[in-house]
Automatic annotation (TrEMBL):
Keywords: Bacterial flagellum biogenesis, Cytoplasm, Repressor, RNA-binding, Translation regulation. Residues 73-92 are annotated as: Disordered. The keyword Repressor applies. GO terms for molecular function: mRNA 5'-UTR binding. A translational regulator that binds mRNA to regulate translation initiation and/or mRNA stability. Usually binds in the 5'-UTR at or near the Shine-Dalgarno sequence preventing ribosome-binding, thus repressing translation. Its main target seems to be the major flagellin gene, while its function is anatagonized by FliW. The lineage of its organism: Bacteria, Bacillati, Bacillota, Clostridia, Eubacteriales. GO terms for biological process: bacterial-type flagellum organization; mRNA catabolic process; negative regulation of translational initiation; regulation of bacterial-type flagellum assembly; regulation of carbohydrate metabolic process. It comes from the Bacteria. GO terms for cellular component: cytosol. It comes from Candidatus Flavonifractor intestinigallinarum. The keyword Repressor applies. It is found in: Cytoplasm. Its main location: cytoplasm. This is Translational regulator CsrA. Homodimer; the beta-strands of each monomer intercalate to form a hydrophobic core, while the alpha-helices form wings that extend away from the core.
């Protein structure tokens, strides 16, 4: 891990397109940081990234018994056919 000291108003660069600026430091030591990055770069607080990973793990897969019950319940159903629009000729 690279450790840097910065004061309010100072920045650091990550590559050519990502800039991190220290906006302010309050009396409690809380730091306000500004991040400038291209739209395609996802910027998240670490706790949000961890929560998203936990949610993805929880939603991952259904237990095999549930999958089997759903397959059984849906096996006798035919797919729904769309109804032709009223007043419009049907396409061949």
């Amino acid at each position: 891990m690279l450790v840097l000291s910065r004061k309010a108003g100072e920045s650091l660069m990550i590559g050519d397109q990502i800039s991190i600026t220290i906006l302010s430091v309050d009396s409690n030591g809380q730091v306000n940081i500004g991040v400038s990055a291209p739209r395609e770069v996802l910027v998240l607080r670490s706790e949000l990234q961890k929560a998203a990973a936990t949610n993805q793990d929880a939603a991952g897969t259904a237990p095999p018994l549930v999958v089997a019950e759903l397959e059984s319940a849906l096996s006798g159903h035919k797919p729904v056919q769309p109804m032709p629009s009223a007043g419009l000729p049907e396409r061949p």
